């Protein structure tokens, strides 16, 4: 019965969707929305006429679920909110129920039975939509996590012969490897003799981070350069002492500025204020 | 007859368990611990100590315990508030706790400072372990302790 009314349902559904204030014309054009809706209705109505309303795991439902899942995933990636994605499915339910009411008319009992079927089915489909939507969002988050991890730590040439490397965030093993490699490479490329590792942006120094720092310093020394660690905040200094980590073999400074000053001294450079000459 | 004193009674005000099985969970756990510490107005130095201790224990749990879970509690005793963390894993366990608590002892070619260092960073520290069954480490850091 709904098969014949496919056109009607689509029109009703589109009307519902377009009337919704949450319509995201910025994210999806009306034509695309119509195409998505039509595809879904097509496969949905085909299944409805087959009569299997309950077992969504059966093969005949898989095209519907695939289409719906595809739509949910795309929407998650495009930045639709859960409410907007939900509205897509819920407005279809309304369109279906409305059509049903027009068709069945006064036979309340039949209307109720059919409505219940549609309700249950659409609820199940909504759950599937949400599960897929959330999976899509999780993928986005995972991708971003990877991207953040990949942003390599920049090595800056602050002066001829002096490199600085600001480290922001947690220093884990993988990150240390990247830091160390790019630092050593840069030392070779620029022929620098002093490297400053600034850890102002590292939230905590535990024994692993400390070990990574010590390794980086030793590696720099092997290259014939000196490595200074700067940006050690008071609370970090206290924690390091309590942990029992020995950093006494390493030149440490509280700020990047004082590390730079130390570097200048080592290189026998002097920064002077110019006194204007009075003629 | 003696009336029992409740001086040392510690009350748990809130509870939250976080499972730690992969690297992302570690970051999440540290952020939660920090949030809780900030909420009870723990000072910056103590916050850093607690965070560093948590970082040591969660790393041990991942490396030697094969992952596990951490119970985060806000506790109160008398007038002071604090954070209690309980790390539980079902890993290989520690055969000799006394040795493991010694500075420099490590079966993982590391600094061997995690457990003894943690003990120095917190107010209360207890460790239970059984070979083949797992390890539980509990620490408490008071907001102004
Ligand atoms: N959860 C655990 N399960 C099993 N063994 C553990 C666990 N935690 C610690 N150990 C054992 O106790 C030893 C000491 O731990 P500790 O954290 O002090 O040092 P580490 O982890 O080896 O080095 P570091 O923490 O300084 O990098 C470990 O080498 C390991 O053998
Ligand atoms: Mg350790």
UniProtKB/TrEMBL annotation, chain A:
| Domain spans labelled STAS | 152-263
Keyword Phosphoprotein among record annotations? yes
UniProt keyword annotations, A-Z = Phosphoprotein
Protein name, per record: RsbT co-antagonist protein RsbR
- What domain of life is recorded for the organism? Bacteria
Entry-linked InterPro entries: Bact_StressResp_Reg (IPR051932), RsbRD_N_dom (IPR025751), STAS_dom (IPR002645), STAS_dom_sf (IPR036513)
From TrEMBL, chain B:
Superkingdom? Bacteria
Q: Which GO terms describe its molecular function?
A: kinase activity
Instruction: Identify the Gene3D superfamilies for this entry.
Output: Histidine kinase-like ATPase, C-terminal domain
Protein name, as recorded: Serine/threonine-protein kinase RsbT
Source species taxonomy: Bacteria, Pseudomonadati, Bacteroidota, Sphingobacteriia, Sphingobacteriales
Tell me any Pfam family this protein matches. HATPase_c
Q: Which UniProt keywords apply?
A: Kinase, Transferase
Histidine kinase/HSP90-like ATPase domain boundaries: 45-145
């Amino acid at each position: 019965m709904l098969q014949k009314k496919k056109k009607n349902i689509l029109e009703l559904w589109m009307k519902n969707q377009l009337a919704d204030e949450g319509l995201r014309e910025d994210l999806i054009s009306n034509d695309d929305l119509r195409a998505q809706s039509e595809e879904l209705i097509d496969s949905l109505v085909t299944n409805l006429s087959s009569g299997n309303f309950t077992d969504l795991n059966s093969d005949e439902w898989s095209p519907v679920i695939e289409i719906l899942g595809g739509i949910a995933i795309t929407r998650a990636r495009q930045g639709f909110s859960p409410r907007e994605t939900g509205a897509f499915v819920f407005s279809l339910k309304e369109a279906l129920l409305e059509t049903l009411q027009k068709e069945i008319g006064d036979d309340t009992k039949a209307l109720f039975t059919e409505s219940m079927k549609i309700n249950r089915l659409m609820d199940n489909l909504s759950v599937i939509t949400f599960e897929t939507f959330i999976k899509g969002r999780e993928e986005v988050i995972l991708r971003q996590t990877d991207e953040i991890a990949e942003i390599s730590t920049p090595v800056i040439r602050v002066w001829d012969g002096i490199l600085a490397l600001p480290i922001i965030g947690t220093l884990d093993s993988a990150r240390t490897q990247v830091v160390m490699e790019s630092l050593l490479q840069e030392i070779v490329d620029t022929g620098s003799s002093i490297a400053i590792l600034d850890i102002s942006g590292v939230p905590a120094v535990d024994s692993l981070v400390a070990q990574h720092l010590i390794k980086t310093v030793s590696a720099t020394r092997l290259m014939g350069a000196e490595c200074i660690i700067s940006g050690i905040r008071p609370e970090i200094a206290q924690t390091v002492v309590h942990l029992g980590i020995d950093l006494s073999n390493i030149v440490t400074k509280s700020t990047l500025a004082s590390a730079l000053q130390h570097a200048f001294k080592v290189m026998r450079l002097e920064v002077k204020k110019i006194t204007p000459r009075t003629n | 007859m003696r009336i029992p004193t409740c001086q040392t009674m510690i009350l748990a005000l809130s509870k939250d368990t976080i499972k730690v099985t992969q690297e992302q969970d570690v970051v999440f756990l540290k952020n939660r611990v920090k949030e809780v510490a900030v909420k009870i107005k723990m000072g910056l130095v103590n916050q850093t100590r607690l965070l560093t201790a948590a970082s040591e224990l969660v790393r041990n749990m991942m490396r030697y315990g094969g992952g596990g879970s951490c119970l985060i509690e806000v506790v109160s005793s008398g007038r002071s508030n604090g954070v209690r963390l309980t790390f539980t894993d079902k890993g290989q366990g520690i055969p000799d706790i006394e040795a493991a608590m010694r500075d420099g002892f490590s079966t993982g070619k590391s600094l061997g400072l995690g457990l003894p260092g943690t003990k120095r960073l917190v107010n209360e520290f207890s460790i239970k372990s059984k070979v083949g069954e797992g390890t539980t480490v509990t620490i408490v850091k008071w907001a102004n302790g």
